[in-house]
Specification:
Helices cover 28% and strands 25% of the residues. The protein has a four-stranded mixed beta sheet with strand order 2-15-17-16. The chain is α/β, with parallel strands linked by helices and 450 residues long. Helix 1 runs parallel beside helix 6 and helix 7 runs parallel beside helix 11. It is globular and about 60 Å long. It binds shikimate-3-phosphate. The site of shikimate-3-phosphate has 9 residues, from helix 5. It catalyses: 3-phosphoshikimate + phosphoenolpyruvate = 5-O-(1-carboxyvinyl)-3-phosphoshikimate + phosphate. Monomer.
Length: 450
């Protein structure tokens, strides 16, 4: 692949509509497949990860049709509509598909083998396997991984036994559990909730910090009964789901974040982003950018829908450094890379508390972002903080162009593009094809507002 060159941009102006939220879209495919009735999913994002969810459900015996527009139609077959796939299920690089699917497969009487692409095969699965085993599923996985032994950050990496794809899973006859989650992870919570739908008795999950609640909202839209008690979620087992007919997926706030920061750091910019998901568990990016001094207005808010949405108007602003608290991190975990760019362009110090989970995303994002931004002149330090890590960025006001790497990670690549557009001088990125994982339209949308 040819390196992608970026020249400094003068300003961004315009109005954009983004494809649907990736997290919500995965849940829409999964939940509509195991419900009764037909579901039209509107504003479906056609990216690599969401295509993987569709193809996995095809292989599990479901009919899912793509229309010419951005809609897909899922023909639900109810909770027990899955059939044994021919051969193994290859989940490519979609971590959300992999972990959520484990929750459903944990309840099936047949055995399934799940395999993954090179990077997902090195991402930890014990966090989801452990509670599913407690519920009664039989799961075998590959033990330990080269990534655990990588010297990249051996001082901060604990050498614990982990479990990785490929995974063989066989289930049936699950029982509900009460589970106190050791890691704040929406994927793990979702897998347990999906398994809990099939279980005898009730399932109760206690989160250390509230994570994105798209699974709970999607299940409720499909008439499941779920109770919330503080940080605990309680679901009664053996509940059937009923399709509401149409599910609209609001624009992805994690994708919007790149355009928001672009508008913030390129003087003279003003961008209106239409119909974005404003789910309260995902608003960390907006709260932090506002604290940094960004000019952001939310308009046309529709709050009485299963997933709140609205328009975001962002204008360039001079940013100041802030402290991002540990308990805020789950609400902006995927936005830390682009916030690291914003922090470098800000005045003063920004501290990201307890962001160690970034080490196990599509790449080690602490490393990928630090390496790129340091090449551009940023001042970044990473320090140990209990079991996690803090990132400390002293804003330098302006970065300079450099030769950057995507590390095969979509959010590192998009952050590098935005950092490069605001920098002085030319930048280049080794490979931007990984952007297709979440937002294949990224570069064309950017061009439309330059
Ligand atoms: C996701 C949850 C988060 C997030 C990921 C998508 C989801 O991961 O980083 O991109 O859709 O549930 P964790 O559950 O590992 O925190």
């Amino acid at each position: 692949m040819k390196p992608y060159d970026i020249l400094p941009s003068s300003r961004f102006k315009g109005r954009i509509i983004l494809p649907g939220d990736k997290s919500i879209a995965h849940r829409a495919v999964i939940v509509s497949s195991i419900s009764s009735g037909r579901t039209v999913i509107d504003n479906f994002p056609v990216n690599n990860d969401c295509k993987v969810s569709i193809s996995a459900f095809h292989k599990l015996g479901f009919k899912i049709k793509r229309t010419k527009s951005d809609k897909i139609i899922v023909f639900g077959k109810g909770l027990n509509g899955l059939t044994r796939p021919k051969g193994c299920l290859f989940i490519e690089e979609s971590g959300t598909t992999f972990r959520l699917l484990l929750g459903i497969l944990a309840a099936q009487k047949f055995e399934t083998k799940l395999t993954a692409g090179k990077v997902l095969s090195q991402r930890p699965m014990l966090r989801v396997i452990a509670p599913l085993r407690k519920m009664g599923a039989k799961i075998t996985a590959k033990l330990s991984s080269p990534r655990n032994h990588e010297p990249a950050n051996s001082r901060t990496r604990e050498l614990t036994i982990e479990e990785y794809p490929p995974i063989v899973i066989k289930g049936g006859n699950l029982k509900g559990i009460t589970y106190k989650m050791p890691v704040a992870s929406a994927q793990v919570k979702s897998a347990i909730l999906l398994a809990g739908l099939y279980a005898h008795g009730q399932t109760e999950i206690i989160e250390p910090v509230k994570t994105r609640d798209h699974t709970e909202r999607m299940l409720q839209l499909f008439r499941a009964k779920i109770k919330h008690k503080g940080n605990a979620i309680v679901l009664k087992g053996r509940q059937g789901l009923v399709s509401p007919g149409v599910v609209y997926i609001p624009g992805d706030i994690s994708s919007a974040a790149f355009f928001m920061v672009a508008a913030a750091i390129v003087p003279g910019s003003s961008i209106l982003i239409k119909k974005v998901s404003l789910n309260p568990t995902r608003l960390g990016i907006i709260k932090v950018l506002k604290r940094m001094g960004m000019n952001i207005r939310l308009t046309n808010r529709e709050l009485k829908v299963y997933e709140p949405r609205g328009d975001i108007l962002v204008k360039s602003s001079s940013l100041k450094g802030v402290r991002i608290l540990r308990r805020e991190v789950p609400s902006l975990i995927d936005e830390v890379p682009i916030l690291m760019v914003a922090a470098s362009y800000a005045k003063g110090r920004t501290v990201f508390e307890g962001v160690g989970e970034l080490r196990v995303k599509e790449t080690d994002r602490i490393r990928s972002m630090s390496e790129n931004l340091k090449k551009m002149g940023a001042d970044i330090r990473v320090v140990r903080a209990g079991k996690s890590e803090n990132i400390i960025i002293q804003g330098v006001g302006q970065l300079k162009g450099a030769s950057l790497k995507s590390f095969g990670d979509h959010r590192t690549a998009m952050s590098a593009v935005i950092a490069g557009l605001a920098a002085s001088g030319k930048s280049s990125i080794d490979d931007v094809s990984c952007i297709n994982k979440s937002l294949p339209e990224f570069l064309s949308i950017l061009k439309s507002i330059i």
